[in-house]
């Protein structure tokens, strides 16, 4: 045996999924080997240098609440923070950060190096080692066999990666990095299904060659927030992004390149994400739009490299260059590298159980783009869940699955496993039926107790949660009791355009009004202000949200409880659905393939009717 | 006592639908007895022992209206068919009564049972042995297939078009809300509140139209309830018998839901009419009509689709006829026909004079009502009466019945009602400036309720709508 004993968890790939998987398993106590093709590209931000965004920011908060690392590392390395959707209700608030790409990668590597249980190996993995339908290790290009009780594959875009720029294409997993061969072929032989997906990235340019005076400045929040619930550093200064626009001249030049477009000419077979179209796709599909927004995002505190968000392209590099130079502020732009499209293999995630373990091979887990998802946040949370579950399985502990009503992470994995995906899957808040419950402000309340029980979230995290809960409860009582006389509040209500009160009322009643905020009441009522001084801002926020959303929260909780009745019907073991003639033909096929773990899960599989669910319940008896 | 697996209480008609002297409506679940007690006249029901029968009336607690006289059979957990608390209500077998009773229980909080659900509960609660599982599963599957066929049949005609339209509008509206929430950072044009209000109004209009067509659908399926009212000697039964003899198309002759009233059904030109004779007017002297008869008759009239006011031409003046029609229909929007009987005792001139005076009277409802003259005992004028009846019905709510969207399924109507309520909440939210995420939450409930009718509208549908309409993505 080479170099090492038997590992508990071997993680293949060190992107956002691989890093979270390795850190989680190791922090839980597993002996972990992280195998990556290049140790200098650990935790690369292959696309834009940003974490979070609508729905994605909530996921990062959830990762942090469970005891993952992405939030902490983002806080340590961000150069700008914005809370998106601030003008909407708190359920929609979504943290987003611009990151320093190099520091982000460095911080991740140092974090991993700081975990004693993580070993590293730099080499391409060519296959897994399987005995009796159970994974027992991985094989590398040099022919080394590492033994492990479980393996997490997080191959990103590297499996048979094919990069397209105009009429040229070449194998590769990322710009200037080799692709990986062998794993797909072996998995197909083992009986897995594979598919092909496509994604793309824009050109990077030299910030010194841009004229920012012709662009709009987009700064960070005046009072920047952050991702982690722990005491991570707060931003004291920020770097702005810039906004500019394409124009008809840009579009004309891009159109010249259409005949060499690998997408329009059909050379790209994989399906790309509809919400992340290339610039040529945008001007082709929305021909009536005379301009498209371009964001110039700095790649770090001190680097001059800029990411041209909104200009993803796989047209020939000279077309990209000429078109780019027609954009206001880009007249003298110098390109560092062109945009490109990349095709890669993925494995339809309906082949997984809710722990992200494959149904075919015991101990084998998939996380990230290999499952057909897109996005750092989506990848990172799958890595975290795969790492936790690999550890739990190896140590004989119960599977860790989050419900749809508990976390966006639960929604994501449930969607993947039960519905599969044809295009790269990205999280949107609209995918979550319990959106009002799944907020960025309460990820800690929802998940830290679970993370603590796992042994991943620290005691400190749990203490903070208990403190926040206790304060919020005190506040709820205080606001419920705090009496307000008509005379002391009616001037304020008139000022706010809210109806005057005619008799004494409680603070909570006024706060229920959509246009009355706590800050207003504190301004008008010094006694209330004084009573609230000792409470933390986060607890205050929590108490107010609970008041504002009260009826909706109740409804959502009721609905989640009803759904839970079906989730409580556990389906034991693998069932032979073919022997259930009363099921519809489609239902039998789908159930055989997905092998749901509960009746609730079965009910969410596309093609399963309520009658099928009833029939299933009867077959299962009690 | 069996620990219940299911937390909700289900209700369904458990005798075959269609004409029968009696119908049995069954409830099963933890709230079966409480729900029944909330609408039943005997207040001792909640404490009554299992395996007991109770005679009384069902009353809608909202309107105070008595729906029927019934016998309630009580079975307590676990000594029942499903091993849950079960109530079986024997009521009169007319479709109308059954639907009213079902609708009442749904409003009170019961859920309409799925195909085979009582049997399923019985099995899951351990009332049957495992060997029966296969049979139960087959039963559910075939019941479901049957209701699917019924639904498909309904889709023929104008219904599917209406549904496609509704689905399209719902997706458009929901997509606009989601666009704001998920893509607020994008460089696209968001619908303003006025635009959203317009779209919502369209959606609500379609849902309301479908709901109305449910009423209409019931009318077509159950017959058009025409109440015949008039003074005792006006000749109501003679007219009824004449109509029945004439048509020979009696669908059924069933006892009325309350003994005082006689119902008969005849088919005219493919439409079923249910004639309800009003006992109140019949059994009381004319001078007491205002006191008791009118109020009782009005109760019938309220449920009618049409009022036939029959009078003896030799006994009443146009003004008297006007006044009585007025009293019967006050506050109701209901087509009325005035039928003057015993033309054989009158002259053509007298009839013409009567009509002129009748039209000149100031009562709007009555003076615009068609006036028909018959001699019921001699079968004279019946053709004209039938033609006028059909014209009256066709000219009103039943216009274009052939192509009208008709929802006859109680479950669908219930879904539409629920959706309409949630859509009203969305409307209220729009009006008061509620956050978009909360509007979307209310809308989601409406979409869920309508799912059975429009087919599920998933988040994927909304995203597809967004991506095809708007240039999203950086």
UniProtKB/TrEMBL annotation, chain A:
Cofactor: FAD
UniProt keyword annotation of Endoplasmic reticulum present: no
Annotated binding of FAD, by residue: 13-18, 125, 180, 369
Localization: Cytoplasm
Keyword 4Fe-4S tagged: no
Any Pfam family matching the protein: GIDA
Protein name: tRNA uridine 5-carboxymethylaminomethyl modification enzyme MnmG
InterPro entries named among the record's database cross-references: FAD/NAD-bd_sf, GIDA_C_N, MnmG, MnmG-rel, MnmG-rel_CS, MnmG_C, MnmG_C_subdom, MnmG_C_subdom_sf
Family of this protein: Belongs to the MnmG family.
Function: NAD-binding protein involved in the addition of a carboxymethylaminomethyl (cmnm) group at the wobble position (U34) of certain tRNAs, forming tRNA-cmnm(5)s(2)U34.
Ranges in coiled-coil conformation: none
SUPFAM superfamilies for this protein: FAD/NAD(P)-binding domain
Positions contributing to NAD(+) binding: 272-286
Domain tRNA uridine 5-carboxymethylaminomethyl modification enzyme C-terminal subdomain as annotated: residue spans: 547-618
Highest rank taxon of the organism: Bacteria
Alphabetic keyword roster: Cytoplasm, FAD, Flavoprotein, NAD, tRNA processing
UniProt cross-references to PROSITE patterns, sorted A to Z: GIDA_1 (PS01280), GIDA_2 (PS01281)
Gene3D superfamilies: FAD/NAD(P)-binding domain, GidA associated domain, C-terminal subdomain, tRNA uridine 5-carboxymethylaminomethyl modification enzyme MnmG/GidA
Subunit comment: Homodimer. Heterotetramer of two MnmE and two MnmG subunits.
């Amino acid at each position: 045996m080479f170099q090492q004993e038997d590992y508990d968890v071997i993680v293949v790939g060190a992107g956002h999924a691989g890093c979270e998987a390795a850190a989680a398993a190791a922090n839980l106590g597993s002996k972990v080997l992280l195998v990556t093709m290049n140790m200098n590209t650990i935790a690369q931000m292959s696309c834009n240098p940003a974490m979070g965004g609508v729905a994605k920011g909530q996921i990062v908060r959830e990762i942090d609440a469970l005891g993952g690392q992405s939030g902490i590392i983002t806080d340590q390395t961000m150069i700008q923070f914005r809370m998106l959707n601030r003008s909407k209700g708190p359920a929609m608030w979504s943290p987003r950060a611009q990151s320093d790409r190099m520091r982000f990668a460095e911080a991740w590597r140092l974090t991993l190096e700081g975990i004693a249980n993580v070993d590293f190996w730099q080499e391409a993995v060519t296959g897994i080692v399987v005995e009796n339908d159970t994974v027992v290790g991985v094989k590398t290009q040099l022919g080394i066999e590492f033994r492990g009780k479980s393996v997490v594959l997080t191959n990103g875009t590297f499996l048979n990666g094919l990069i397209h720029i105009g009429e040229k294409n070449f194998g590769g997993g990322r710009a200037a990095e080799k692709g990986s061969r062998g794993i797909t072929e072996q998995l197909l032989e083992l009986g897995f299904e594979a598919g092909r997906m496509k994604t793309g990235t824009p050109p990077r340019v030299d910030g010194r060659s841009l004229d920012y005076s012709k662009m709009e400045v987009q700064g960070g929040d005046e009072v920047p927030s952050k991702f982690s619930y722990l005491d991570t550093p707060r931003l004291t200064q920020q770097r702005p992004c810039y906004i500019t626009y394409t124009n008809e001249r840009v579009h004309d030049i891009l159109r010249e390149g259409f005949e060499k477009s690998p997408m329009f000419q059909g050379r790209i077979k994989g399906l790309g994400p509809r919400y992340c179209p290339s610039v040529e796709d945008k001007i082709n599909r929305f021909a009536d739009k005379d301009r498209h927004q371009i964001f110039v995002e700095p790649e770090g505190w001190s680097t001059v490299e800029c990411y041209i968000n909104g200009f993803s392209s796989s047209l020939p590099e000279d077309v990209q260059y000429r078109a780019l130079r027609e954009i206001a502020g880009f007249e003298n732009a110098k390109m560092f590298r062109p945009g490109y499209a990349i095709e890669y293999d993925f494995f339809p995630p309906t082949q997984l159980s809710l722990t992200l373990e494959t149904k075919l091979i015991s101990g084998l887990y998939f996380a990230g783009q290999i499952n057909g998802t897109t996005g750092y946040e989506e990848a990172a949370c799958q890595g975290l869940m795969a790492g936790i579950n690999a550890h739990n399985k190896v140590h004989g502990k119960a599977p860790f699955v989050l419900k749809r009503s508990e976390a966006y992470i639960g929604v994501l994995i449930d969607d993947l496993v039960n519905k599969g995906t044809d295009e790269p899957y990205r999280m949107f808040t609209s995918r979550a039926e319990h959106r009002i419950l799944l907020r960025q402000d309460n990820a800690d309340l929802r998940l830290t107790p679970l993370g603590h029980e796992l042994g991943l979230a620290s005691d400190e995290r749990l203490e903070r949660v208990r403190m926040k809960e206790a304060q919020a409860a005190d506040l709820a009582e205080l606001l419920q009791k705090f009496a307000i006389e008509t005379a002391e509040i009616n001037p304020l209500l008139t000022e706010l355009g809210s109806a005057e009160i005619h008799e004494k009322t409680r603070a909570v009643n006024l706060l229920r009004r959509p246009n009355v905020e706590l800050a207003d009441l504190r301004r008008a009522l010094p006694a209330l202000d004084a009573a609230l001084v000792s409470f933390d801002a986060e607890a205050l926020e929590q108490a107010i949200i609970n008041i504002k959303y009260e009826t909706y929260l109740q409804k959502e909780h009721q609905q989640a409880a009803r759904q839970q009745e079906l989730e409580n019907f556990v389906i034991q073991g693998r069932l032979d659905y073919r022997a259930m003639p009363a099921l519809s033909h489609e239902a039998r096929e789908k159930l055989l393939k997905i092998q749901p773990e509960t009746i609730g899960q079965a009910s969410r599989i596309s093609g399963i009717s309520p009658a099928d669910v009833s029939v299933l319940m009867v077959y299962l008896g009690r | 006592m069996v620990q219940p697996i299911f937390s909700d209480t289900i209700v369904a008609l458990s005798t075959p639908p269609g004409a029968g002297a009696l119908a049995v409506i069954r409830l099963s679940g933890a709230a079966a007895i409480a729900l029944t007690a909330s609408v039943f006249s005997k207040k001792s029901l909640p404490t009554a022992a299992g395996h007991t029968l109770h005679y009384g009336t069902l009353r809608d607690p909202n309107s105070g209206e008595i729906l029927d006289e019934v016998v309630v059979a009580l079975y307590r957990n676990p000594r029942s068919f499903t091993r849950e608390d079960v109530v079986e209500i024997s009521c009169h077998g007319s479709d109308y009564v059954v639907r009213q009773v079902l609708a009442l229980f749904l409003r009170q909080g019961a859920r309409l049972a799925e195909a085979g659900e009582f049997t399923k509960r019985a099995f899951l609660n351990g009332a049957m042995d495992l060997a029966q599982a296969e049979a139960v599963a087959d039963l559910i599957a075939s019941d479901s297939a049957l209701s699917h066929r019924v639904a498909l049949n309904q889709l023929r005609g104008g219904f599917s078009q209406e549904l496609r339209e509704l689905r399209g509008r719902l997706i458009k509206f929901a997509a606009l809300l989601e666009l704001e929430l998920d893509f607020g950072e994008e460089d696209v044009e968001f619908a303003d509140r006025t635009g959203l209000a317009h779209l919502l109004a369209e959606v609500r209009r379609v849902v309301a139209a479908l709901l109305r067509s449910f009423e209409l659908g019931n009318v077509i399926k159950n017959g058009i309830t025409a109440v015949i009212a008039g003074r005792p000697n006006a000749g109501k039964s003679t007219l009824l018998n004449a109509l029945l003899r004439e048509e020979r198309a009696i669908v059924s002759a069933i006892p009325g839901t309350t003994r005082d009233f006689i119902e008969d059904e005849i088919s005219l030109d493919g439409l079923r009419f249910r004639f309800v004779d009003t006992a109140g007017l019949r059994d009381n002297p004319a001078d007491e009509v205002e006191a008791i008869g009118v109020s009782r008759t009005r109760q019938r009239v309220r449920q009618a689709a049409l009022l036939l006011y029959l009078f003896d031409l030799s006994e009443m003046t146009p003004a008297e006829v006007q006044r009585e029609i007025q009293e019967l229909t006050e506050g109701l929007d209901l087509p009325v026909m005035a039928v003057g009987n015993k033309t054989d005792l009158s002259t053509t001139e007298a009839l013409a004079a009567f009509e002129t005076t009748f039209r000149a009277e100031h009562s709007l409802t009555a003076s615009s009502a068609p006036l028909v003259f018959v001699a019921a005992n001699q079968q004279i004028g019946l053709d004209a009466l039938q033609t006028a009846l059909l014209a009256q019905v066709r000219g009103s709510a039943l216009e274009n019945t052939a192509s009208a969207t008709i929802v006859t399924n109680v479950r669908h109507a219930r879904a539409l009602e629920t959706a309409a309520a949630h859509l009203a909440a969305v409307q209220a939210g729009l009006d008061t400036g509620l956050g978009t995420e909360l509007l979307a939450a209310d809308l989601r409930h409406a979409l869920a309720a309508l799912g059975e009718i429009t087919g599920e509208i998933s988040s994927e549908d909304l995203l597809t709508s967004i991506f095809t309409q708007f240039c999203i993505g950086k």
